[in-house]
Amino acid sequence: MNYMAVKDLKKTRSLRERLEKEGELILTKDGQPFALLVGIQPENVEGSLAEIRRAMFSAAVMAARKKSVSTPPNAGDIEDEIMESRKNRGLK
User: Fold this and answer.
1) Other beta carbons less than 10 A from residue 39's beta carbon
2) Does 30 share its domain with 71?
3) Which residues contact 14 (CB under 8 A, 6 or more apart)?
4) How far apart, in whole angstroms, are the C-alpha atoms of residue 44 and residue 34?
5) Region 61-75: what's the mean pLDDT?
6) pTM score
7) Same domain? 48 vs 92
8) Is a pLDDT exceeding 70 seen at residue 92?
9) Contact assessment for residue 46 and residue 39, using Cβ atoms and an 8 Å cutoff
10) pLDDT digit string (tens) for 38-54?
11) Within this chain, do residues 72 and 28 fall inside the same structural domain, yes or no?
């Protein structure tokens, strides 16, 4: 993994060169990672964004599945979540 301090974002030429060479950079602040920069092709911005979102969604689903194995929800918790979701979407 390639790291870059957030303060170094001001060096745009260096940033662009590193992204072209390495493809991705993990941004850090105070030594802690907080963001990921990924180089993309200008003609495929929407496709790249869709793929990144798909990967993040898959990771979230996997994390939820792992959590449910270690601490399974009860029927009441599931029903509460369904009702809250419906309420937030204006369905009930």
Assistant:
1) 14
2) no
3) 8
4) 25
5) 89
6) 0.63
7) yes
8) no
9) no
10) 999 889 999 999 999 99
11) no
